[in-house]
Structure formats: structure tokens, C-alpha cells
Specification:
Elements (H helix, E strand, L loop, with lengths): L7 E5 L12 H13 L4 E4 L11 H15 L5 E4 L5 H10 L7 E5 L8 H14 L4 E5 L1 H4 L5 H10 L3 E6 L4 H10 L5 E4 L5 H7 L3 E4 L6 H12 L3 H18 L6 H9 L16 H13 L1
Parallel strand pairs: 1-2, 1-8, 2-3, 3-4, 4-5, 5-6, 6-7, 7-8
């Protein structure tokens, strides 16, 4: 391997909806071009930010295929395929047409609260079934069960088809233990925009970003400076976006990021229940932050 396959800035792309709740493909096209123009390194389709939990199989395939057609090989694509029923995840991995995709991002099982052994066996099965490399996704704030550093490293050692992890635990001690013990070539990717700079300083290869949906150029430039070791130049961009990042999850995600994108004219401020738009108060604050940016 010449270098990390997913270095730099990946963006967890939102799914735009029309007022009637249907997927808005013209707006998705606009968003994809916005991200490519912003010089991000790769796109992650149908992660949490893409509201994958409220999309059916046909809609997901439509988004996967449309994205491949529009991006036309201009940058790598990662498909978000995960869940809390291992057999269903395996069916989805083998059932989707993933032409044009380079990897699968698969979230750790949620709601069931499996043991570490259960998480390990889940990913062992996913890795064996997947025709594409797999990136783990640890986000205990959503799954209610942290995938420990020991479990992550065990999967990394035992499953050659697992090439990295998106770490959104926010626990720098855990992240450092993974970075210290990981096999060569296993990528550790930030899942938190706010701590991407320190994670890269510790050895992470980049980020799968939410704020990058709205500000791809500023954020991807910051990440490139970090990866080049120029943290002094990266810090102003990091702090410039920090207030915006803080608003993204103030009333749930992707409610926050879609408020920014709606104000930019990239998509409608529409969601699938139970997700709803941010309050008028937060929307007003977001507009104020955008004016300064």
C-alpha cells in the first residue's frame, strides 16, 4: 500500500428531501457538485447524516446509483450499510448494487447493546460477507455501546478486510490506544469534526465530516494542512469553524447541518420523522454564524 486509502476529508453526505418527503435527486446533484468543487477527498453516502434509518431499500439503491452516476469516478465513494440485525446487514451488503464504490462504512450494532464479543462476531461476519473493504464505525452516543480499543484492535488484527475505523467516541485516551496498537495500514478516521485536528496530530489519517457538507473547502484545507504537519496554519481554520460545529448537534443531527445548507440554497429544510428542523432560535443563531463565516 502506498498510503492510506481514505486519507483527508470524507463527507457524510446529507439526503435532501422535497416537501412531500420524497428524495430530492436534483438537490443531491447540487450537493455532490458543491462537495467536489470544495475539494473533499471522498464521499460517504447513507451514513447517519444521510438519514439512512428512515430510507427503504429502493430509495437507498437510488441514492447509491445516482451518486455513482453524477460523480463519475471523480472521487472515491463509501457506502453506509449497517444495522443491529447481523443477518439483515449481510443481506444488504450482498443485495445492493455498489458499482463505483470503494468501501463500506458499517456502524456498530445499536439498541441491542451487544457485548464486546457480540460486536466482534458481528464485524467478523460483515467482513467475511463484504465484497468491499470495511470501515468500522464506533459512535456510542448513538449506539449506547462503546466498541472498546481492545475490540477494535482485535477486529483489525483478525479481519484483513477491515481496513480502518471511524472513531466517534470522543474519548482521546481510547483513540490513542487504538493508534498505538493498530496493525500497519489500519486507518483511524475522526468521526468528530471538533477533535479532528488533535486526532491527526496523534496519527489519524483524516475525518468523515458533517460540517464539510456546508464548508467543504475551509474544512478540507484545514485537514490537508494538518496532514502536512502544518498545524500552526491549520489552527485558524479549526477555530473559525468551531462555533458552527458546536451548533450541528445542539438540537440533533442532521437538523443542524441542513439549516446551514438550506440557507446556502443547497437543499430544502426537510426531514423524515422523527427528525425535525431546528428551532427558530437556533436557526437564527446559525444565520448569525454564517454571516461571520
Amino acid at each position: 500500500m502506498n498510503g492510506p486509502r481514505f486519507a483527508g476529508t470524507g463527507v457524510a453526505v446529507v439526503t435532501p428531501f422535497q416537501a412531500d418527503g420524497t428524495v430530492d435527486l436534483p438537490s443531491l446533484t447540487k450537493i455532490l457538485e458543491h462537495l467536489i468543487d470544495g475539494q473533499v477527498n471522498y464521499l460517504v453516502m447513507l451514513g447517519t447524516t444521510g438519514e439512512s434509518a428512515t430510507l427503504d431499500h429502493k430509495e437507498k439503491q437510488q441514492i447509491f446509483s445516482h451518486t455513482c452516476r453524477i460523480t463519475a469516478g471523480r472521487l472515491p465513494l463509501v457506502a453506509g450499510i449497517g444495522g443491529n440485525d447481523t443477518s439483515r446487514v449481510l443481506e444488504d451488503i450482498q443485495g445492493f448494487d455498489l458499482t463505483g464504490y470503494s468501501a463500506i462504512l458499517s456502524v456498530s450494532p445499536y439498541y441491542n447493546k451487544p457485548s464486546q464479543e457480540g460486536i466482534y462476531r458481528h464485524y467478523q461476519a460483515v467482513a467475511a460477507a463484504s465484497p468491499l473493504p470495511v470501515i468500522l464505525y464506533n459512535v456510542p452516543g448513538r449506539t449506547s455501546m462503546n466498541m472498546t480499543a481492545d475490540t477494535t484492535l482485535r477486529i483489525a488484527r483478525d479481519c484483513p478486510n477491515v481496513i480502518g475505523t471511524k472513531e466517534a467516541s470522543g474519548n482521546l485516551d481510547q483513540i490513542m490506544r487504538i493508534l498505538r496498537g493498530k496493525p500497519e495500514g489500519f486507518e483511524v478516521i475522526s468521526g468528530d469534526d471538533a477533535i479532528t485536528l488533535p486526532m491527526i496530530a496523534l496519527g489519524a489519517t483524516g475525518v468523515i465530516s458533517v460540517i464539510g457538507n456546508a464548508y467543504p473547502k475551509i474544512f478540507s484545507d484545514m485537514v490537508r494542512k494538518c496532514l502536512a504537519g502544518n498545524f500552526h496554519a491549520a489552527r485558524p481554520d479549526h477555530f473559525r469553524l468551531l462555533e458552527a460545529v458546536d451548533t450541528l448537534f445542539a438540537e440533533g443531527s442532521p437538523s443542524g447541518i441542513k439549516a446551514y445548507m438550506h440557507e446556502m440554497g443547497l437543499c430544502e429544510n426537510q426531514f423524515r420523522l422523527p427528525v425535525v428542523p431546528v428551532s427558530d432560535t437556533l436557526y437564527s443563531s446559525i444565520c448569525g454564524i454564517m454571516a461571520h463565516l
